[in-house]
């Protein structure tokens, strides 16, 4: 598909909300650029936090894989696999989702180009202190809080009336269009998965979607600069998302994502053209 153009003239029928006020913190990428060996105390985790005794890498190959094309065709076997994945894991990987490889690869490339820009250019889209849209760092509520070793770029993409297009980067060229094109595809796959969940629950296919008066869809990009002591920092702190669905697109050659399963941490080995999904909250411990 051709990337859809971002509509710069969207009429705001309702004021776009603000979310999660955040204290200002240093730009990690710029800090590393100035001194690659510096790791401030505020980023260092305790030995207890970094303990890996409950780390089970051998379970990585057991993370459920769902064939989206079969799910869309109403395969009862694939619906049963999804049901089991949600009950036992709360996470699964999706293959044959129909999102073109070229689109996903271009999204990664343009994202990398954005974070490669001079900090002065990136700061044109700096996140305000009372919101989460834009370039910066979120969820900092205390001056004593230990920080994550990452910088972020966050947008609300749906409903369109909540978009704040002043935070959608003009550079690199085509990035705004790619954000739009990628978000459209994620929305398509996400809605189909929710419809499948309706069927699993014995409801009409469109019933759960109907309960979502307006789908609030956001896009977050996490950038993890190199660290001289990676064993002492977290790129992103352990957390549970509050959304109905979470989707993670990993770099094909970089491991790092881990999921919580029955009290242990399980690494998610990147698989090309595959995305990791979470539906609702899973209590598997």
CATH homologous superfamily name? Answer: B-lactam Antibiotic, Isopenicillin N Synthase, Chain
Q: What is the C-level CATH assignment?
A: Mainly Beta
* CATH third-level topology: Jelly Rolls
Q: At CATH's second level, what is the architecture?
A: Sandwich
Q: How far apart are the first and last residues' alpha carbons, in Å?
A: 41 Å
What are the segments in which pLDDT stays under 50 over at least 5 consecutive residues?
1-13, 280-285
Percent of residues in β-strands: 15-25%
User: What count of helical segments does DSSP give?
Assistant: 8
Strand segment tally:
9
The secondary structure category is alpha+beta
The strand line-up of the biggest sheet is: 1-2-9-6
Helix content: 25-40%
Radius of gyration: 20 Å
Largest beta sheet, briefly? 4 strands, mixed
Output mean pLDDT: 87
Q: Count structural domains.
A: 1
Helix-strand topology string: HHEHHEHHEEHHEEEEE
Write down the overall geometry: globular
